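Quick question about two entries, pasted in order.
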Amino acid sequence: MSDELIFGQHAVRTALKRDTSRIRGMLFQKGRRDEKAQALLELAEQQGLSVQIVPRQQLDELTKGAVHQGVVARCAPMKSHNEKYLDQLLDSLEQPAFLLILDGVTDPHNLGACLRTADAAGVHAVIAPKDKSAPLNATVAKVACGAAEAVPYVQVTNLARTLQKLQQQGIWITGTAGEAELLVSQADLKGPMALVMGAEGKGMRRLTREHCDQLVKIPMAGEVSSLNVSVATGVCLFEAVRQRSTVEA
């Protein structure tokens, strides 16, 4: 199985702290002396990882010209979690479940951005169907800036069945749709809940929509009719964060 590359200081730092077992080797840019890069080098050496000091050109070629900030980690491919893991996670929660469900988000950049936002909002897990969804890969890890290692990404065989199961556990399912009558700010997003975001353009699939307890929309005042899915996810998640923090206070 070929290695995946994680690069960028924040993403590599998170991998070092979260799961060093995935890291098969580290490459650092020769001559780079900034404090953050040196701290990463020391951390890698302390953990007994294989470290190589290489010219910048080699890192540029490995990352195909991306911004690597002088550090690249060779890692075993990331793996998503399954339904059993989700059951165990929900059983272990000591606070109301807060989940993000992505229905048909296939672009790894969007997945990475959604994971980053989910991490910032305190989401317990991101759920997606196994088919027609972006896999975890190096692009996702780079865009997520460490969140791909921090937020569980659960891929399920049958999303409609998973939604039913969540409802049976008392989790309220809120879907997003441009034609919804309820604004996201008017909806009750407190308590155990899952926010469902659909694919750009197509939105949620019919079966997914039918399993939602309520549909909400983001008010749009300009000429554009919709937002990028990661931006829309941020708007909705942080409205939920606002409401939930009011309850906790």
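Here is the second entry:
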Amino acid sequence: MEIRRLAPADWPAVARIYAEGIATGNATFETDVPSWERWDGGHLPGLRLVAVTDGEVAGWAALSPASEREVYAGVTEISVYVAEQSRGLGIGRALLDELLRRSEDAGIWTIQAGVFPENTASLRLHEAAGFRRIGIRERIGRQDGVWRDVVLLERRSAR
């Protein structure tokens, strides 16, 4: 497996993997994959990665700013998605570990994640990488007419 920076040419594969996550109903409140331009504008340029196996993008991870306010410049939100056929192979963990390393090199001091409580694999992944649960945002959004909770996790840089 190779982990490298996400390039614009990776977008079709990244969008497909994102759509697979949306289809599970347990990855995001999003209902449609955004355009490249919208996605690109919302994620930090140097902190987005893809995992490539056998020449194919098997997963991606990226950080987006938590706020536009300068005081929160080192606070981000993480997204990690793995292709359906590649789940359970350690790709998510490899992406997460590399993104954490690069985020610390970039001066990021806090990474937060919002995970549906039903997404136990994602909760385990984040907790194994040093994220801690800081609360539950109860009934924070509706999905298909059903109110959903989101577990809020956070990881602070040791630097």
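Reply: The first strand starts at residue 2 and ends at 5. The helical segments are 11-24, 36-42, 91-105, 120-128. Hope that helps.
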